[in-house]
Amino acid sequence: xxxxxxxxxxxxxxxxxxxxxxxxxxxxxxxxxxxxxxxxxxxxxxxxxxxxxxxxxxxxxxxxxxxxxxxxxxxxxxxxxxxxxxxxxxxxxxxxxxxxxxxxxxxxxxxxxxxxxxxxxxxxxxxxxxxxxxxxxxxxxxxxxxxxxxxxxxxxxxxxxxxxxxxxxxxxxxxxxxxxxxxxxxxxxxx
Length: 191
Description:
By secondary structure, this protein is α+β, with helices and mostly antiparallel strands. The chain has 4 helices and 6 strands, in the order ββαααββββα.
């Protein structure tokens, strides 16, 4: 039977891991440069190096963050460029101009039932901001009026819908259910 080697540090009876040290002392040697280092064994400390971003003298964090301080690492992570300034709000942001058909994720005639309802809310506002067209109480939903000659059918729910946002009317829950039942739609009892 092979004898078990132990750590070479006097007083340490732990099993040998590498270079004649146990796991604890070997980790201390790797991380701190000495197997006698005290305190918790932390990840590599790189705080002695300055950030590599142009004009930044902040220290690099413990994680290293690709050689950048936290600020420039987050810029790279979010925007793809550590030197690019942060998010520009309002009309000066070019992304704010890309709504509707100009947006790169625009799906046009392939819009789903739920995506179409988001489009209606964006273009016409929330239904709850209007009175119900049937009874006059506060509306809760945008209800399809069933006048589109070529309606689409939602693959998930089987409900009919139109891509034309003008073919929707604000209705309260009860009027919306009655309206859908009158047009042969099965109504979900949950709303």
